[in-house]
Design a protein that fits this description.
Layout lengths: L1 H32 L3 H8 L7 E7 L11 E11 L2 E11 L9 E15 L2 E16 L4 E20 L2 E21 L5 E22 L1
Antiparallel strand pairs: 1-2, 1-8, 2-3, 3-4, 4-5, 5-6, 6-7, 7-8
Length: 210
């Protein structure tokens, strides 16, 4: 019985990994194929009619540093006259290694441009890093320095005054975080964690057009 359950689990996990890869590839293909539409969109699209607010969240189907890693994120964007400004937060938990339970949180200021054709829109932009902090379960943390951000692109399909959006975001952050703690003799210990944090997230969300 135990062997059968293990075999079924391995088959299910293999199917999930294949589905994940196909899903990611499909999203990328759709976004890439949308690029040739942009020239035609310049002639057909009235940006003044497409001012909107978009709110999205990370789907969990991400390209992360390890199989046990998890991430969560939220993004809000306001777009008017084809230009957008927004705010995005993301938290990565590595899930393995010495910092397996550390929550690494980043926030960025997004600037973007958007174009479209009929009920289909394409948005691309970059988020400049505002903050990067760690939440360690047993140690105090201080961010000495951090730099980087995240590039992203979204597609949207309009349904009346609402729209469904999907997108992809690539994070790249270089950081230096100081850790401090007390050993079993009450002495304070410190160390600096210098590293490059890189991962990708897929987002899905809703927009309101006004």
């Amino acid at each position: 019985m135990g062997l059968q359950a293990s075999t079924l689990f391995l088959k299910y996990w293999g199917f999930f990994e294949r589905f994940h890869s196909v899903f990611n590839f499909t999203i990328l293909v759709v976004l890439i194929l949308s690029i040739p539409l942009l020239d035609k969109a310049k002639a057909d699209w009235n940006s003044a009619e497409l001012s909107r607010i978009r709110v999205s969240t990370a789907t969990g189907l991400d390209s992360l540093p390890s199989e046990k890693a998890t991430s969560s994120g939220t993004s809000i964007n306001y777009i008017i006259n084809a230009f957008g400004i927004g705010y995005t937060t993301s938290t990565l938990t590595p899930g393995e290694g010495d910092d397996s339970d550390v929550k690494k949180s980043s926030s960025v200021l997004d600037l973007s441009v958007m174009t479209g054709i009929q009920s289909f829109t394409f948005q691309a932009g970059y988020g400049w890093l505002l903050s990067h902090k760690w939440d360690h379960p047993t140690k105090d943390t201080t961010t000495n320095s951090s730099e980087g951000g995240s590039g992203f692109f979204n597609v949207g399909v309009q349904f009346g005054i609402f729209e469904l959006t999907g997108g992809y975001r690539v994070w790249s952050i270089v950081h230096n975080v100081n850790l401090s703690w007390e050993d079993n003799k009450g002495r304070t210990k410190t160390s600096d964690e210098k590293d490059h944090l890189a991962y990708k997230e897929m987002y899905i969300g809703l927009g309101y057009i006004f």
